[in-house]
Design goal:
The protein is α+β, with helices and mostly antiparallel strands. It is built from 9 helices and 4 strands, in the order ααβαβαββααααα. A hairpin with a 3-residue loop joins strand 3 and strand 4. The radius of gyration is 26 Å and the shape is extended.
């Protein structure tokens, strides 16, 4: 069976820093680092991922590359006035994924557009790069397209800031691909089952069960 062009593009992006892609990625990252943090690009770098999100090569669709700094959010060390424990240098980490941060920055740069989705396009020692697909909900070509005109509804306004994109739903644990094991509902069901089978806490660890003194006398457990 013949494989599509998108399949071959996806195969190359499985190991983008090896083989045929190695030198190309090196040149790209050198060029991207010199450019601004948010740059509009003419066409997607990963056509397979852009099309999977919903991108079409027509009016109303815009692709933006966003650069996000990697690593922890270390602060500048104060010169005086605090003990080392309270310097506030370490222990800061973003509560969102870098991909969601990139989408929000693109939405702030283009406030009249809506974020459709994003995908990873590379990283170096300091930055991680994502391409964000945005849609103009006021464009006639978008309003006339039945496949994408759902984004013109008022309920989709500023959708990226309400966790409606793929990255936002992944952060909230709402994607089916993650399965049930990582969600709160799975943990609650597991604990309820353990309580029913009396396998939680002391009983599950094999430790001695501590019974109140008055209850032990009634049951005849007091020696």
């Amino acid at each position: 069976m013949a494989k599509s062009m998108y399949h071959h593009i996806a195969e190359l992006w499985k190991n983008p820093y090896e083989g045929e892609m190695k030198e190309l990625m090196r040149q790209r990252l050198i060029e991207w680092r010199k450019q601004p943090a948010v740059v509009r690009v003419e066409k997607p770098t990963r056509l397979d991922r852009a099309r999977a999100i919903g991108y079409e090569a027509k009016q109303g669709f815009i692709v933006v590359r966003v650069r996000v700094r990697k690593g922890g959010m270390r602060k500048q060390r104060p010169k005086s006035g605090r003990r080392p424990k309270r310097m506030g240098v370490y222990g800061y980490a973003p509560a969102k994924s870098l991909q969601l941060i990139a989408e929000e920055r693109a939405a702030r740069k283009y406030p009249n557009l809506e974020v459709l989705g994003s995908y990873y396009v590379g990283e170096d020692g300091m930055y991680r790069y994502f391409e964000v697909v945005l849609v103009d909900p006021h464009h006639p070509a978008i309003q006339a397209d039945r496949d994408i005109n759902w984004i013109t509804q008022p309920s989709q306004r500023r959708r990226v800031f309400r966790g409606k994109t793929l990255a936002g739903r992944r952060m909230k644990g709402l994607l089916k691909s993650r399965g049930l094991r990582g969600t709160h509902k799975w943990k609650w069901k597991k604990k309820a089952k353990e309580r029913k089978l009396k396998k939680r806490h002391e009983a599950s660890r094999g430790a001695r069960l501590i019974v109140p003194k008055d209850l032990a006398e009634e049951l005849g457990l007091e020696k």
